[in-house]
Design a protein that fits this description.
Length: 540
């Protein structure tokens, strides 16, 4: 053997070792054990039953890094079946872990289930919350933050600290009382308050003058959009549900139910305390929560009028939403620019127009999508698919476009092929704000408009630098258009993030499918999957 070839062989051997090493180097694991109990909390000054995780309301925060495996054992000590869903955590190839009734059997009382999630190829600000019944109204939610790996540049200097703010409307009534109201066919009353990290006022965030802090703000409420602002300070938007945005500066930001944003705040004012404010949007009565931004050397309490924010101004919100853009040159979870994938040049293969509605069936209030008011079957859709159990759902229940006729009950599942690139129009003929969330896939928000969507509206789409996210608002009597790459095989919930609407039928599932059974496109059913309904007694 000549000298050169032996060197080549040596080099190839080295490469082979390296690739073995690369394959073996598993992503890190983070373990959490969560005991879910009832406990007395008094966020609005009156004791009420809350849902606690390890004794805490709100629940513990998950902080992890891109690609980490996150293993969460949930021990259900409530008196009802329970599930947690991971809002915006994509779970590639793994709708088995999505924690909604279409994918998972609920965890019976006094038992546990171990979720195995992976924050694969994701960064950003997300949340988790209970998906069962009206449990979300009593707690059980928390922050889920995915940090960038060290090797990947983030498009801003590291902040001095990172704060998570869970903001949402709140009722003094228990989740069971709220459920009774909905079950009896009535809408919920107006909420009793709005909370920031479990308190209507005085949650405090400390910083040093001259430094910059990151505030991750999520709307964990049931029904109400809010506007967020900090007295005397500006908000520089840097991230929105996993997209690095063009860093624009705002006086205040609207955040709709289920949405998350991250902003940078520089403490460049006189060293005192300042009010942090969240106030309800599009409501006749305005509820306000306050927190405190405390300069570390401050000896002066926050004072003066609260900074003013928009209240019913719909157009203001729409205009602001149109300014949210993706920073195309920033890296995302992988070390390549976010703009390297040119979504605007791909022609969608299908268009869905999904119209929400409120009407009565048997005199009881129900919400629907294209006239179908969703009912959860006893057998999760995903299990029905896996075990080939007939009679649980069919793909003809819901139409791709609104059709005239009465609202009926049904189990809506839209069938789509893996890697289909689709356009969804959320058409809102109602006079209230909507918020839609898709599990398992993020999407480009390409357009917002008034009244009726028509194909001509496509000319006004942003096909260049729209940001991707998981949750999008639709203004009253308006439409929102999204482009969705269905690259994640599985059964994915598309729902109203406005929880009473979801509970009373404004949801459906997208079955993203191909006929090839392969671990490259979808993971196998987990060994510990719970079985219920017609899947009971099946063998995994
Ligand atoms: C976009 O990202 C790049 C690359 O990280 C960064 O240098 C730039 O400041 C960002 N621009 C804006 C407007 O956010």
């Amino acid at each position: 053997m000549g000298k050169e070839t032996s060197i080549v062989h040596l080099f190839l051997g080295f490469l082979a070792c390296l690739s073995v090493l690369v394959v073996k180097a598993e992503d890190p694991y983070r373990y959490f054990t969560w005991t879910v109990t009832y406990g007395t909390i008094s966020p609005l000054g009156v004791p009420q039953q809350g849902i606690l995780i390890n004794g805490h309301f709100p629940g513990p925060q998950i902080d992890c890094v891109t690609n980490d495996n996150v293993i969460v054992t949930v021990i259900n000590k409530l008196d009802q079946p329970f599930l947690i869903t991971w809002n915006g955590v994509k779970q590639r190839k793994n709708s088995w872990q999505d924690g909604v009734l279409g994918t998972n059997c609920p965890i019976p009382p006094q038992t546990s289930y171990q979720y195995k999630l992976q924050a694969k190829d994701q960064i950003g600000t997300f949340t988790y919350f209970p998906s069962t019944l009206m449990h979300k109204a009593s707690g059980g939610f928390g922050g889920f933050n995915i940090y960038s790996r060290d090797m990947i540049p983030v498009p801003y200097a590291p902040p001095a600290a990172d704060y998570t703010l869970l903001v949402g409307d709140w009722y003094k009534s228990s989740h069971k009382a709220l459920q009774r109201t909905l079950d009896s066919g009535n809408a919920l009353a107006f909420p009793d308050g709005i909370l920031i990290n479990g308190r209507p006022q005085s949650t405090s965030f400390v910083g040093d003058r001259g430094k910059t802090y990151k505030f991750r703000i999520s709307n964990v409420g049931l029904s109400t959009s809010f506007n967020f602002r900090i007295q005397g300070h500006k908000l520089k938007l840097v991230e929105m549900e996993g997209s690095h945005t063009v860093q624009q500066v705002y006086e205040s930001l609207d955040i709709h139910v289920g949405q998350s944003v991250a902003v940078l705040v520089t403490l460049n004012q006189a060293p005192k305390d300042y009010f942090i404010v969240a106030s309800t949007r599009f409501t006749k009565r305005i509820l306000t929560a306050t927190g405190i931004l405390h300069y570390s050397t401050s000896r002066t309490k926050a004072s003066g009028p609260l900074p003013i924010g928009p209240t019913y101004h719909v157009h203001w919100s729409l205009k602001q939403a149109r300014t949210f853009r993706m920073n195309l040159t920033a890296s995302a979870a992988r070390p390549n620019p976010q703009g390297s994938f040119h979504y605007g040049t791909i022609k969608p293969v299908r268009t869905f127009v999904l119209a929400n509605s409120a009407s009565r069936i048997n005199k009881k209030l129900r919400y629907a999508v294209n006239r179908i008011s969703y009912v959860n079957p006893d057998t999760p859709l995903k299990l029905a698919d896996y075990f080939n159990i007939p009679g649980v759902f069919n793909l003809k229940t819901i139409q791709d476009k609104p059709t005239p006729g009465p609202t009926v009950f049904g189990t809506s599942v839209i069938g789509a092929a893996l890697h289909d690139f689709v356009e969804i129009i959320f058409q809102n003929y109602e006079n209230t704000i909507q918020s839609w969330h898709l599990d398992g896939n993020d999407f480009w928000v390409v357009g917002y408009g008034n009244k009726q969507w028509t194909p001509a509206m496509r000319q006004k789409y942003n096909l260049y630098d729209a940001a991707t996210r998981y949750t999008v608002q639709v203004y009253p009597n308006s439409w929102t258009a999204i482009y969705v790459p269905l690259d994640n095989k599985g059964m994915w919930n598309l729902r109203s993030a406005i929880w009473p609407r979801q509970y009373l039928g404004q949801q459906l599932y997208l079955r993203v499918w191909n006929n090839e059974r392969s671990l490259f496109t979808e993971y196998d059913i987990p060994k510990n999957a719970l079985l219920c309904g017609k899947a009971k007694g099946q063998h995994i």
